[in-house]
């Protein structure tokens, strides 16, 4: 596809339920990031994948959050036992190269708006 | 991070005027900086970036200025248009294995026709 895609675009769930969010990065992009954006706020880094390297999970807010990535393609972000404070837009971004290159732009998807009732 | 609630700083300008959006960054080790534009319901869109060995970079109608001494970044938009209305975020990054970005809280630019 032409850009990063995410699904679903909107997700409404009940407190305590698990949710799974999907990200399809731009083909050929080796790096993939997940961010969380609460209403009216900036983006919080959650997790980073780069090829077969161990992911950087330093931004995950609790052990209810986890993410997987299949090779250099699709990624899923899973939130278990959702809480109302998990309500936010979850954004995925991908980037072409990695490490010491000079091209740092991250391309963002449209996000998934999660509402926990 | 700091919770600034729902009240984004807002800059209101008249169409045709120049806009200046400011940002303070936190990490002295950051070696590149990016400005993103985010329209309602969309993901952030890259505008322009600058590396730490530069203090100014120009794009089409936009200029980014970097002052490392005071850890300050600004985005200047010339001849602001209604289509420029959006939330603007600065982001700082440190080249290396992760290249994760640290985002500021954003500024809402409202262009009055």
Fold blueprint:
The complex is a heterodimer of chains A (117) and B (113).
Chain A: E1 5-7, E2 10-13, E3 19-24, E4 31-37, E5 43-50, E6 65-69, E7 75-79, E8 88-95, E9 107-108, E10 112-116
Parallel strand pairs in A: 2-10
Antiparallel strand pairs in A: 1-3, 3-7, 4-5, 4-8, 6-7, 8-9, 8-10
Chain B: E1 10-14, E2 19-24, E3 32-38, E4 45-51, E5 56-58, E6 62-67, E7 72-77, E8 86-93, E9 101-103, E10 107-112
Parallel strand pairs in B: 1-10
Antiparallel strand pairs in B: 2-7, 3-4, 3-8, 5-6, 6-7, 8-9, 8-10
What this model shows, in words?
The complex is a heterodimer of chains A (117) and B (113). Chain A has no helices and ten strands. With 117 residues, chain A is mainly beta. The radius of gyration of chain A is 14 Å and the shape is globular. Mean pLDDT of chain B is 89; it is low at 1-5. Chain B has no helices and ten strands. Chain B is an all-beta fold and 113 residues long. Chains A and B meet through strand 4, strand 5, strand 8 and strand 9 of A and strand 3, strand 4, strand 8 and strand 9 of B.
Gist of the model:
The complex is a heterodimer of chains A (117) and B (113). Chain A is mostly beta strands.
Structural class of chain A: mainly beta
Mean pLDDT of chain A: 90
Sheet having the most strands of chain B: 6 strands, mixed
pLDDT under 50 segments of chain A (min length 5)?
A: none
Name a few traits of the molecule:
heterodimer; A: 117 residues; mainly beta; 6-stranded mixed β-sheet; 4-stranded antiparallel β-sheet; B: 113 residues; 10 strands; disordered N terminus
């Amino acid at each position: 596809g032409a850009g990063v895609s995410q699904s679903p675009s909107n997700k409404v769930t009940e407190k305590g339920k698990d949710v799974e969010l999907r990200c399809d990065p731009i083909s050929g992009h080796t790096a993939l990031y997940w961010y969380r954006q609460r209403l009216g706020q900036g983006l919080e880094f959650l997790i980073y994948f780069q090829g077969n390297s161990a992911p950087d999970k330093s931004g995950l807010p609790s052990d209810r959050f986890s993410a997987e990535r299949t090779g250099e393609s699709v990624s899923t972000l899973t939130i278990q036992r959702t809480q109302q404070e998990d309500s936010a837009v979850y954004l995925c971004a991908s980037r072409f190269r990695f490490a010491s290159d000079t091209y740092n732009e991250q391309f963002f998807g449209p996000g998934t708006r999660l509402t926990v009732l | 991070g700091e919770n600034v609630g729902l009240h984004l700083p807002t800059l209101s300008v008249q169409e045709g005027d120049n806009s200046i959006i400011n940002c303070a960054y936190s990490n002295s080790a950051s070696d590149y900086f990016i400005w993103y534009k985010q329209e309602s319901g969309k993901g952030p869109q890259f505008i322009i970036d600058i590396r730490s060995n530069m203090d100014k970079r120009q794009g089409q109608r936009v200029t980014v200025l970097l002052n490392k001494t005071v850890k300050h970044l600004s985005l200047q938009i010339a001849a602001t248009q209604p289509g420029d209305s959006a939330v603007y975020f600065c982001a700082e990054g440190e080249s290396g294995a992760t290249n994760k970005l640290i985002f500021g809280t954003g500024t809402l630019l409202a262009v009055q026709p």
